[in-house]
Amino acid sequence: YGYYHATNEGGYISWYDFTCEIYRQAGYTTKVIPVTTEEYGLSKAKRPFNSRLDKSKLAANGFRPLPDWKDALRRYLGNLVARS
After folding, report:
1. pLDDT digits over 69-81, tens only?
2. Within a domain: residue 1?
3. Distance (Å, rounded) from C-alpha 71 to C-alpha 19?
4. Cα–Cα nearest to 37, from 26, 27, 45
5. Residue among 7, 1, 17 at smallest CA distance from 54
6. Is 27 left (phi over 0), alpha (psi -120 to 50) or beta?
7. Tens digits of per-residue pLDDT, 23-53?
8. DSSP labels for 22-58?
9. Distance between CA atoms of 68 and 9, rounded to whole angstroms?
10. What is the spatial distance between Cα 70 and Cα 4, in angstroms, rounded to a whole number?
11. Residue 3 located in a structural domain
12. By residue range, what is the domain housing residue 48?
């Protein structure tokens, strides 16, 4: 009962890390420049410094962990290429 959070395995990453990996897997050499929340400044919503999701309820109720996020990204990008 209640809320369950589900995310891929592979540890905590930032949006910067995620973007870099997207470009890397897509074969681009684009330089990605990290930007802090303060530098970005467009959102009026207050954002927590750490917004990791707690997946402990999944494990406690017998759910298997999801695949590593890099593997999931690889499969997702592969599906995009296959559809085009």
Report:
1. 999 999 999 999 8
2. no
3. 15
4. 45
5. 7
6. left
7. 999 999 999 999 887 787 777 777 777 788 8
8. HHHHHT--PPP----HHHH----S---S------HHH
9. 4
10. 22
11. no
12. 8-83
Contact between 65 and 19 (Cβ < 8 Å) = no
Is the CB of residue 8 less than 8 Å from the CB of residue 66? yes
Taken as a whole, the chain contains a residue count of: 84
The 10 Å Cβ neighbour count of residue 20 is 16
d(CA 11, CA 40): 24
Nearest to 55 by CA among 14, 8, 1: 8
The model's pTM: 0.79
Domain at 18, CATH number: 3.90.25
